[in-house]
Amino acid sequence: MNDDTGRRFPAHDASSGSTVSEAAAGAILTIDLGAIRENYRRLKARLNGVRCAGVLKADGYGLGAAQVALALAKEGCDIFFVALLGEGIALRKAIGPGPDIFVLNGLPPGSEPEALAAGLFPVINSAVQLKAWRETARSAGRSLPAAIQVDSGMARLGMAPAEVEAVAREAGAFDGIGTRFVMSHLARADEPQQAANETQRREFERLRLLLPAAPASLANSSGIFLGSAYHYDLARPGAALYGVNPTPYEANPMLPVIRLQAKVAQTRAIGAGTGIGYGHTHQANGPLRLATISLGYGDGWHRRAASAAWFGGVRLPFIGRVSMDSIILDISALPAGRLSEGDLVELIGPSQSVDDAAGHAGTIGYEILTSLGARFHRRYLGG
Ligand SMILES: *Cc1c(COP(=O)(O)O)cnc(C)c1O
C-alpha cells in the first residue's frame, strides 16, 4: 500500500493477525485458539452426534474470522456462517475452497453473481431472495445450494409464516435451489424458563414441513443448552466458542478465550485535592499513586465498562473518566515502585472475564468482544 508521498506501508496481514508490533502497541490481545477448539469439542459432546457449525460474523466476534475458521476446521468443522457477503468473500479468500460458508443476512439484490463466484451460499430470508437465487441458478445452468430461514417468532430475519405458506403453494418456487438446511433463530434461548422457546420450536416444526425436506437447524450457543429437542441436525454456536457464557443463569461451562492487557504509559504520585482526569470528576482525598494505561474508549473500551484493572491479583480501580486512548488507575494498593512504564495490567483475563466486563457496562459479552480495538497487538496461541 502506498500513501500519496509514495512511501510504502505494509498491507494488513490476516495470517499474522496484527498490524502493530508487541513493542509498539499500547495493549496486547491474546487469543487462545486452543481454547476455542476445546469449546467446540465441549459443544459437540453436548450435541451427541449432531453436526456443529461455527458462526464467524463480525470477524469471528472480533477475534479474527480466518484464524478461528482454520482452528475449527482442525476439529472437523466444515460449515461456517457469516453475517454479510463481504465477510464471506474475505473468509473464502483466507480459508480457500472446501468448507461451506453461508451468509446469514441474505444477499443484497444484485450481489448474487459475486456470491456465486466466491462459492458462498445465501441464507434465503424472503420470497424476493428466493426468486433471485432461483434465477441465478437458472443462468448458471445448475442447482445452487442455499439455506432457507423462517421467522418462527423473532421478527428479525427469515420468511414470515404467511410468506412460507405462499411460496409453499407456488409451483416451481424451489426449482434450482438445493436446500441444504431449513433454519430459524431463537429470541430468548438464554432464558430456558421462557415459554417463547417452545412456542418458537413448534412454529419452526410447522413451517419447515411446508418447505422442501431438508436437515433442520435452530440452536445458537444458548439453544444447545435447551436440550436435545432443540438440536435438530445442525447447531450454530458463536458466542460460546469465544468463551461467553451461554448459560448466564449458571456457571460458565466454556473455557475463557481471550486475555487483554494494557501497558502502563506513566506513573505518578499526587497530593490531596488534585483533580483527576477530564472534568475533574474525581479529587484525591489524600496522597495517591496513579498509573495511566494506554487503552481507552478508542479501543472499544466503553466508558462504562469494567471499572478496574488487575495486576498480580491486586485490583486497581479506574479513577476519573475513561479517555480515548488512556485510563487512569489508582495503584495505591501496590507497593511503591511495583509498577513501572511498560508493565502490563490485565483488563480481561483470569481476574476479570468478558462477562464481568460486560456486566459493569450494562451490556453483553458479545458487544465487549466485537468492540475490541484495531490498535491492539494480537497474539494467537494454539494455532
Ligand atoms: C449470531 C447468530 C448465531 C450465533 O449465536 P450465538 O448466540 O452467538 O451462539 C446463530 N444463528 C444466527 C441466525 C445468528 O444470527
From TrEMBL:
Active site: K57 (proton acceptor), Y278 (proton acceptor)
GO cellular component terms attached to this protein's record: cytosol
UniProt: substrate binding residues: R156, M324
Matching InterPro entries: Ala_racemase, Ala_racemase/Decarboxylase_C, Ala_racemase_C, Ala_racemase_N, Ala_racemase_pyridoxalP-BS, PLP-binding_barrel
Stated family: Belongs to the alanine racemase family.
Alphabetical list of HAMAP family matching this protein: Ala_racemase
Protein name as catalogued: Alanine racemase
Organism: Mesorhizobium plurifarium
